[in-house]
Design a protein that fits this description.
Elements: E1 2-5, E2 9-15, E3 21-28, E4 40-41, H1 43-59, E5 69-73, E6 79-82, E7 92-93, H2 101-109, H3 113-120, H4 130-139, H5 143-148, E8 152-155, H6 157-165, E9 172-174, H7 175-178, E10 184-185, E11 190-191, H8 193-199, E12 208-210, E13 213-221, E14 224-233, H9 234-241, E15 249-254, E16 258-265, E17 276-283, E18 286-295, H10 299-307, H11 317-322, E19 332-334, E20 352-354, H12 362-388, E21 394-398, H13 405-415, E22 419-422, H14 427-439, H15 446-452, E23 455-459, H16 465-482
Parallel strand pairs: 1-5, 5-14, 9-12, 15-21, 21-22
Antiparallel strand pairs: 1-2, 2-3, 4-7, 6-8, 10-11, 13-14, 15-16, 16-18, 17-18, 19-20, 22-23
Bound molecules: adenosine-5'-diphosphate.
């Protein structure tokens, strides 16, 4: 059973040996926006929603049937609670929260970027836990003294749930989650003293870092003790759930934005294009790294077509509409609603459209929006290729927008490689289950999981090389032109 603690909901999903979903419950919880740019969650609401999802799933079955529990979670979100009372001292500061952005600018101005990048694999950003921890210790009355006295615990959602499930017995996290805090040395596998000093974070508040797949503790459920056998950050879990076990294998989650992770194996690889290096997992003392890049706006552009432009009624209409034309008719759309991420890193560019003629139809525009999702993903994959010098083997798609055949086909066309879409697009939860299942011998070995993960459809490239080059160079030109316009 995977407990998938996401940004907007907590879910419990029970899988069988074939990797099929036996039972599933999802409970949403409230988002708090106390100030512009701030995002918080209530740790108790997170726990109750997770507990209630879990209980609803096991209500229907005999708890004996649950071999193991896995926790997959929204990453970076920062929880701090009292070790003695178990009570949170402040709401959880969510990964999206920008309250420490100004402080991050100061860190950059002081020239800390290269140290932080080489030590943690990350770039300085309010997104990661370190500056959120510092903010809580600075702003909650008496927090730093309590922390110094060893009376507080820090953790991401995985640690918080583990603490709750084990009745306050275990304070731990896994390597994938530790690598998102911006205080963890991903080369030497330890909390980094210089960074702890920089952020004034006492070591005593930090969780123990354990193998991603292995025993974390026992949860008492319906009077039975069930082992928690895996904890893993959601994106890394999806990489595992997509069976991207070999260096060069990439998963792309097509959601509101896109999250691309490439397995880079036992070596940490450093990007020259601003992509992140991160720990994918550590299993039986063996480390696996990944390179990560994200597209800010992907499915959100489809929502924009639906909600603002009224060109479609529902997200799935985009396939039908785009299917009425053979291509975008020379229209290129750059969805830089919030600037451009990797590899361009320009926060001031805004969205635009090129190549419109008197003959441009609604369908051409819909198609151009879909194409832009594949083009942006290719931009990141090209950056990964140049950073990694790895042969690109395949890409594995998941997330809500992977239901769209037009995007999937154009992704294969523009990359010139096959794109796999799984039957079960819940890759994160499945990845967690795989890890817990391996640690408890429910599944025999990693290789056997490739059969468990069933493919719905493989998309093969259908265009010629010169056409691919022509389309992609036009896209690059449209990015270049878009970047001339600054907000
Ligand atoms: P997130 O986890 O970021 O909320 P999801 O993985 O749930 O995202 O995917 C939601 C996104 O997928 C939405 O932006 C929506 O526009 C898009 N989407 C959902 N169904 C389809 C579809 N059939 N065709 C194209 N896009 C879709």
């Amino acid at each position: 059973m995977t407990l998938d603690q996401g940004t907007t909901s907590s879910r419990a999903i029970l899988f069988n040996k074939k990797g099929q979903i036996v039972s599933k419950k999802q409970i949403e919880f409230k988002q708090y926006y106390p100030n512009p740019g701030w995002v918080e969650h209530d740790p108790e609401e997170i726990w109750f929603s997770q507990k209630s999802a879990l209980e609803q799933v096991i209500n229907n079955i005999d708890a004996k049937q649950i071999v193991a529990i896995a926790i997959t979670n929204q990453r970076e979100t920062t929880f701090i609670w009292d070790r003695t009372t178990g009570e949170p001292i402040y709401p959880a500061i969510v990964w999206q929260c920008r309250r420490t952005a100004g402080y991050c600018e100061k860190l950059k101005a002081r020239g800390l970027e290269s140290y932080i990048n080489s030590t943690t694999g990350l770039t300085i950003d309010a997104y990661f836990s370190a500056t959120k921890i510092r903010w809580i210790l600075d702003n909650v009355d008496g927090a730093r003294e309590k922390a110094r006295g060893g009376r507080l615990c820090f953790g991401t959602a995985d640690s918080w749930l583990l603490w709750k499930l084990t009745g306050g017995k275990v304070h731990a996290t896994d390597y994938s989650n530790a690598s998102r805090t911006m205080i963890y040395d991903i080369n030497k596998f330890c909390w980094d003293d210089r960074l702890l000093e920089e952020f004034d974070i006492p070591k005593s508040i930090l969780p123990e870092v354990l193998d991603t797949s292995g025993l974390f503790g026992m949860a008492e459920i319906k009077g039975r003790q069930i082992p928690i056998m895996a904890m893993v950050g959601d994106q890394q879990a999806a990489l595992f759930g997509q069976t991207c076990f070999e260096p060069g294998e990439i998963k792309n989650t097509y959601g509101t934005g896109c999250f691309l992770l490439c397995n880079t194996g036992k070596q940490k690889k450093t990007s020259r294009t601003g992509l992140l290096s991160t720990i994918a997992w550590r299993i039986k003392d063996e480390i696996c790294y990944a390179m990560e890049g994200s597209v800010f706006n992907a499915g959100s552009a489809i929502q924009w077509l639906r909600d603002e432009m009224n060109l479609i009624n529902k997200a799935s209409d985009c396939d039908t509409e785009a299917g009425k034309v053979k291509d975008s008719g020379g229209v290129y759309f750059v969805p830089a609603f919030t600037g451009l991420g990797a590899p361009y890193w320009d926060m001031h560019t805004r969205g635009t459209m090129f190549g419109i003629t008197r003959g441009t139809s609604k369908q051409h525009i819909v198609r151009a929006v879909l194409d832009s999702i594949a083009f942006q993903s290719k931009d990141i994959i090209e950056a990964m290729k140049s950073d990694l010098d790895l042969p690109l083997k395949s890409i594995y798609a998941d997330g809500g927008a992977c239901a769209c055949n037009t995007i999937m086909q154009f992704q294969a066309d523009i990359l010139g490689i096959q794109v796999y879409r799984p039957k079960n697009i819940e890759s994160t939860a499945l990845g967690g289950a795989f890890m817990a299942g391996l640690a408890s011998s429910f599944w025999v070995d990693k290789e056997s999981l490739r059969d468990v993960r069933e493919t719905d459809k493989i998309f093969y490239p259908e265009i010629e090389d010169d056409m691919r080059t022509k389309l992609y160079s036009k896209w690059q030109k449209s990015i270049e032109c878009a970047m001339l316009w600054k907000d």
